[in-house]
Amino acid sequence: MEFSSDGTKQDITSKLFQAFVHKPFLVVMTKQGRILEIHVDSILSSTVNQITGLTVQQRALLTENLNKFLGGNASKGSFEMLTAIYTSVPVDINSCWFTTTKMKSLTTMDLRGKFF
Question: Of 33, 65, 87, 89, which has fewest CB within 10 angstroms of its CB?
């Protein structure tokens, strides 16, 4: 399968990617990079509404599934994997520290990162 956000593909997945391009969303995080709030749900619903040719039932099911995979809790863990890299306590040069992130989508995962 091949998907694209550049507008050349017309399948539903590519249309979803296209609708996300250049859409800002609010993220609130701590100084350590922990995500407190992430607001992508409105983008998801407006994205689904831009796709033509869907029945009301298909639109509702797609919105529900997108919220499970990309909505608040799922996005929070995905972004936090990239941003939660700072320790909350001072560390010495050449020391290491660990971070843990909880990802929630269809299942829950606890991820642990080691930083130097």
Answer: 89
| Contact criterion met (CB below 8 Å) for 32 and 86 | yes
Residue 115 identity (one-letter amino acid)? F
Confidence of residue 30 (pLDDT cuts 50, 70, 90): very high
CA distance 78 to 27: 12
Domain-embedded: residue 38 = yes
Task: Look at residue 69 and tell me if it is in a domain.
Answer: yes
Per the prediction, the chain carries an average pLDDT of 82
Is residue 49 a part of any domain in this protein? yes
Paired residues of 110 in beta bridges: 102
Instruction: Compute the distance between CA of residue 32 and CA of residue 75 in angstroms, rounded to an integer.
Output: 17
Does the residue 81 lie in any domain?
yes
